[in-house]
Design brief:
Elements: E1 12-16, H1 19-22, H2 33-40, H3 57-70, E2 75-79, H4 82-85, E3 86-88, E4 93-94, H5 96-111, E5 115-119, H6 127-133, H7 139-156, E6 162-167, H8 169-177, H9 189-212, E7 221-227, E8 231-233, H10 238-261, H11 266-274, H12 283-291, E9 296-300, E10 305-308, E11 327-328, E12 336-337, E13 342-343, H13 348-359, E14 365-369, E15 374-375, H14 390-408, E16 413-419, E17 433-434, E18 438-441, E19 446-449, H15 451-462
Parallel strand pairs: 1-2, 1-16, 2-5, 5-6, 6-7, 7-9, 8-10, 9-14, 14-16
Antiparallel strand pairs: 3-4, 10-11, 12-13, 15-17, 18-19
The structure holds beta-D-galactopyranose (GAL).
Beta-D-galactopyranose (GAL) binds at residues 18, 21, 167-168, 227, 300, 369, 373, 419, 426-427.
């Protein structure tokens, strides 16, 4: 078969989901910040739908894995919920039911020939640790997270070979401490900077533990999943270029650099120092960050960022914010996914590939999420009852074509995961926008393969399209 885009051998064709977004709260003994937020403020969630049932994966994982197999995926990422696995956060005592559940899930994937990629944190901090210690503001919580990670390695590390420490740690910083879209919805730039640092430290400490326990010698690899939003200036004027450079350093490189190079971007550190908001750190911690970099990188890509110089001087009377250094720029004529309010710009796939190749040692990396959320997909159901999501297939093909170009120019990309295999719960957007290859009818939890599910099966089988 002649293909226009052929991908490297053993390429990962898969999808990503997470524990809190798919499992439901069944039999969970603790609450995450999201569980708690829903309990106290259900109206903050689209149509009042919370994480209680999600896509029922806790009960239907066998059938779900079968469907995932049916659409030909060779790999899949999900996450282990700290609030499910651990009974006592201080000692790391494990909940036996939860250990059994995750063992069953992992075994099921492996039995079906699907490579499990396991992430340790997907925004789901135990709310008790927020109340008791201030969550990620506290280095105590960093150490408790290492205890949880160690348990995961010990319980599942014989079979799981690909681990991620965090999913989109920058979203924790933005959502919880800057822009109020995740509980506790604070606006506190100084705390945000400390959290940013602590999350980097937590990732490095987990990697250190992984290596000390010898999982790297057993074919194990550990990485991090970052949402990269390549940042483009409004114009080539110096002031716009500087604004975009700050955005790139604050929102992307503040995790990318420590994860791969073991150090923070110098320009950023200089600015945070000058503004007196730099994090508290010790030389010993910096050493841990320096010496414990990732084996592979996962990139979640949805949208670019566009920046321009500030139009008005930033009012600092309510405290420091990164927004002191840029304004967001809405480029006229940009293509939008109006359901999600995100720009569509597939060229970024190429720019990311080249950035990793040229500035990050061409480290092995993969696209760990890319996707298109669409509302009201039932209007695309055809006579056979299948959702004809042609827009999604086009979206993927376009993004893949730019990724392919980056790979053909030498970027070391080993896979492409979409968000998400089966429609899942998307935080405060709940089930508003659907992303899956497989649709979920919420009232009945009946799951049906969309047209894109048939498409990915062909792509995976042919290793291209
Ligand atoms: C990502 C996140 C996912 C999912 C997705 C679509 O940023 O990692 O958990 O919610 O957005 O909204």
């Amino acid at each position: 078969m002649s293909l226009k885009y052929k991908f490297p051998e053993n390429f990962w064709w898969g999808s990503a989901t997470s524990g809190p977004q798919s499992e439901g709260r069944f039999n969970k003994k603790h609450r995450s910040v999201f569980d708690y937020w829903f309990d106290i403020e259900p109206q903050a969630f689209f149509n009042g739908v919370g994480p209680n049932v999600a896509s029922n994966f806790y009960n239907s994982y066998k059938e779900d894995v079968k469907l995932i197999k049916e659409i030909g995926l060779n790999s899949l990422r999900t996450s282990i919920q700290w609030t499910r696995l651990i009974k006592d956060f201080e000692t790391g005592e494990v909940d036996e039911d939860a250990a059994k559940f995750y063992n069953n899930v992992i075994n099921e994937f492996i039995d079906q020939g699907i490579l499990p990629v396991i992430n340790l944190h997907h925004f789901d901090l135990p709310v008790e640790l927020y109340e008791k210690y201030g969550g990620w503001e506290s280095k105590k919580v960093v150490d408790l997270f290492v205890i949880f990670a160690k348990k995961c390695f010990e319980l599942f590390g014989d079979r799981v070979k690909y681990w991620a420490t965090f999913n989109e740690p920058m979203v924790v910083v933005e959502g919880e401490y800057l822009y109020k879209f995740h509980y506790p919805k604070l606006v506190d730039g100084k705390k945000a900077v400390q959290v940013l640092y602590n999350l980097n430290l937590a990732s490095a400490k987990v990697i250190k533990e992984f290596k000390e326990l010898g999982y790297d010698k057993n074919g194990g690899k550990i990485g991090i999943i970052l949402n990269l939003t390549p940042s483009y200036p409004r114009s080539q004027e110096e002031k716009d270029v500087n604004a975009a450079k700050f955005v790139e350093d604050f929102f992307n490189n503040s995790f990318l650099d420590p994860a791969i190079k073991g150090k923070f971007p110098e320009n950023l550190v200089e600015i945070l120092n000058k503004d007196n908001v730099i994090w508290e750190s010790t030389e010993e911690e910096m050493e841990i960050i320096r010496n414990n970099t990732i084996d592979f990188l996962g990139v979640n890509y949805y949208q670019p960022r566009r920046a321009k110089a500030k139009e008005e001087k930033f009012d600092e009377s309510n405290g420091w914010m990164p927004d002191k250094y840029f304004d967001n720029y809405e480029m006229p004529g940009r293509r939008m996914n109006t359901y999600r309010g995100w720009e569509i710009y597939p060229q970024c796939m190429y720019d990311i590939a080249i950035n990793v190749r040229d500035n990050y040692n061409n480290i092995p990396w993969y696209i760990s999420e890319n996707g298109m959320g669409v509302e009201g997909e039932e209007k695309y159901i055809n006579d056979d009852g299948v959702i004809e999501d042609n827009y999604r297939i086009e979206f993927y093909e376009e993004h893949l074509s730019y990724l392919h170009k980056g790979i053909s120019e030498g970027s070391n990309c080993f896979g492409y995961h979409t968000w998400t295999p089966i429609d899942c719960w998307s935080w405060s957007n709940a089930y508003k926008n659907r992303y899956g290859f497989i649709a979920v009818d919420l009232p009945t939890q009946i799951k049906t393969i969309k047209k894109s599910g048939r498409w990915i099966k062909e792509v995976a089988k042919n290793n291209g399209f």
